[in-house]
Amino acid sequence: MRPETKKLVLTSLFAGFMIGVGCLVYLACENRIAGAVLFSAGLFFVLTFGGTLFTGICGLKTPWRKLLAVFLLNGAGIFLAGATAWSHSALPQTAAALVAKKLAMPPISWLTNGFLCGVMMYLGVTGFKKAAHGALAVASVLYAVPVFIVAMFEHSIADMGYLFAALPALSAGQALQMGGVILVIALGNVLGSKAARACTGG
């Protein structure tokens, strides 16, 4: 394996795993605001340690093959995190309730909420990278992530985390349907990120 390919694989797996950890923390919190803030740790560590996250690069001029590879590798990483919830007594049920709520939403909202999350992710990631000092970098993440979570915007990779954590409590039909929903959300993430980049001159 070429060094650049190895790096992409490892950094993408790492990014997926860290977002998965953020999902587990959010599921474990009874307070949504606290959960949203703590979820930010996942993106903070991804950006600090050079992880490659689908929603962090989908607004850039990233080749589609690379984007697809990162999406799948993020999925593999987040599966590892999500699977740790299966032995927990409550987390799969909590995740399943969240998945059911997303499945019950009007289909157009999967795309529009994915779009809005893409906007926030682009602003958060770009703000972190352009920040003049550490406090502004942290603020970029702490504003962007809780905003999209509390507003119920849809993050395709995080939704994978909720799906994988919920698997023991879902039917096969629900799991397959959520997989399709995630693909629609991913499209929204791409469109929102690219729109934010165009509007900010990135």
Task: Describe the protein in words.
It is a single chain. By secondary structure, the protein is mainly α. The chain is built from 9 helices and no strands. It has helices at about 5-30, 30-50, 55, 65-85, 90-105, 105-130, 135-150, 155-165, 170-200. Helix 4 (about 65-85) runs parallel beside helix 8 and helix 6 (about 105-130) crosses helix 9. It is globular.
Would you kindly provide a brief summary of this structure?
80% of the residues lie in helices and 0% in strands. It contains nine helices and no strands.
- Anisotropy-based shape: globular
Name the beta content range. under 5%
* Count of helical regions: 9
Q: Give the helices and strands as they follow along the chain.
A: HHHHHHHHH
How many E-type strands? 0
Oligomer: single chain
Topology:
Blueprint: H1 3-28, H2 32-48, H3 54-57, H4 64-83, H5 91-103, H6 107-130, H7 134-150, H8 156-166, H9 172-200
Helix pairs in contact: 1-2, 1-4, 1-8, 2-7, 4-8, 5-8, 5-9, 6-7, 6-9, 8-9
What would the keywords be for this entry?
mainly alpha; 202 residues; 0% strand; 80% helix
